[in-house]
Write a structure and sequence with these properties.
The chain is α/β, with parallel strands linked by helices. It has helices spanning 19-22, 54-62, 71-79, 107-124, 136-139, 150-164, 181-184, 211-214, 216-227, 230-238, 240-249, 267-279, 293-318, 321-350; strands spanning 3-9, 32-37, 82-84, 140-146, 199-201. Strands 2-1-4-5-3 form a five-stranded mixed beta sheet, sandwiched between helices. Helix 4 runs parallel beside helix 6 (150-164) and helix 12 (267-279) crosses helix 13 (293-318). The two termini are 38 Å apart.
Length: 351
């Protein structure tokens, strides 16, 4: 989970009627909006190519992300600072583990999040007819939360950038060929003023956004319960042949810790190879001794199976009531509490 933005109505401020959401003829009032969003496009989690090609592949992915000196993060933090709880020892769980440039938010991902923010602004801006103003913060109290990953905090910053920027600012589609230009040439002067919104990265023990970070031992046990079932073992066993063949092309898969199952590989990392390369139009067999048309065709043919098998594994996980409750229960309870607070406060004001 990347982040949650809580947009709550400020008393006595105008906002769009509810009909914009549900085509209702009534003039009901929007008093709160909760947005959950995953991070934007990122680089693969780790290198899977042969050791001799790791540096060459890393250079390619390095060209798709902001400088590792975190200049972009620091510029965005002038306007959208992050308050990171001391339980993380001032370290991001991704960017400070020594795997740069793997697992980093790309320029494309930054623009995707900016565009999502713009879409939200157009939907809820009280004065959507204005081309130069963004009055979201005039009508709503905006709160933002993120997990402790540089890619998720920066995704939240870019979302807020799109949500709160003047409508006259350039809009770029997430699939635009020039998507890098929005943030690649970022101007520090555009971010000198504090937005008044601080992104909260809460205590690791109490955070509701990522159960695997909060309770790794519990989550490992719950996943183990799922992958040890006969149904899971039977289907995952049938994927072992593809997994073994995939390791011939991506030897790094043999060194990755899996989430269990007889297939023996980490399907998240395997899927990363296809998803990230497709996103950046990089041939699937590039940076390999096996790079050729035949290998490319073979990997293309395996692509659908890899992503589909990963999707099946996740679906099977989340059919477990205990596992689903551990993941979805805390954030939904958090939202319910906030909803009750808003409704109760509104009821008191209306009396």
């Amino acid at each position: 989970m990347s982040a949650i933005a809580n947009i709550s109505k400020i008393p006595n401020r105008p906002c769009q009627p509810f009909r914009r959401l549900f085509s209702s003829s009534s003039r009901e009032e929007t008093v709160g909006v909760w947005v959950f969003h995953r991070h934007g496009d990122r680089t693969p989690s780790r290198p899977l190519v042969s050791e001799e090609f790791v540096d060459e592949e890393a250079d390619f992915w390095r060209s798709k992300i902001p400088p590792v000196d975190r200049t972009h993060y620091q510029i965005l933090s002038e306007r959208f600072p992050a308050s990171i709880h001391e339980s993380y020892d001032a370290k991001f769980l991704d960017a400070d583990c020594g795997r740069e440039p793997y697992g980093f938010l790309s320029y494309k991902g930054m623009t995707q999040m900016y565009q999502k923010g713009r879409e939200m602004a157009q939907r809820f801006n009280p004065d959507s007819s204005s081309s130069s103003k963004n009055q979201i913060t005039d009508a709503f109290e905006v709160k933002a939360y993120s997990t402790n990953y540089l890619r998720t905090v920066k995704s939240c910053q870019c979302f807020l950038d799109g949500l709160l920027s003047p409508s006259s600012r350039i809009d770029l589609g997430a699939n635009d060929d020039n998507y890098e230009t929005l943030y690649e040439n970022i101007d520090p002067n555009d971010y000198q003023d504090h937005s008044g919104i601080t992104i909260q990265v809460r205590n690791r023990k109490n955070d509701t956004l990522n159960a695997f970070d909060k309770s790794p031992t519990l989550m490992k046990s719950l996943v183990k319960d799922v992958v040890s079932t006969d149904h899971f073992i039977d289907r995952d066993t049938k994927a072992a042949t593809v997994a073994a063949r995939l390791c011939n092309f991506l030897p790094g898969l043999m060194n990755c810790t899996s989430y269990g199952g007889p297939s023996g590989i980490n399907w998240i990392h395997a899927s990363d190879h296809f998803v990230c390369r497709h996103s950046h139009e990089l041939p699937l067999s590039k940076f390999s001794n096996l790079e050729c048309d035949a290998s490319e065709q073979t990997l293309q043919a395996m692509s659908h199976f890899v992503t589909s098998h990963l999707a099946w594994r996740f679906r099977t996980w989340y059919q477990s009531p205990a596992l689903l409750a551990a993941i979805a229960g805390p954030p939904l309870a958090n939202v319910k509490d906030q909803m009750n607070t808003i409704v109760n406060n509104k009821g008191k004001r209306d009396k």
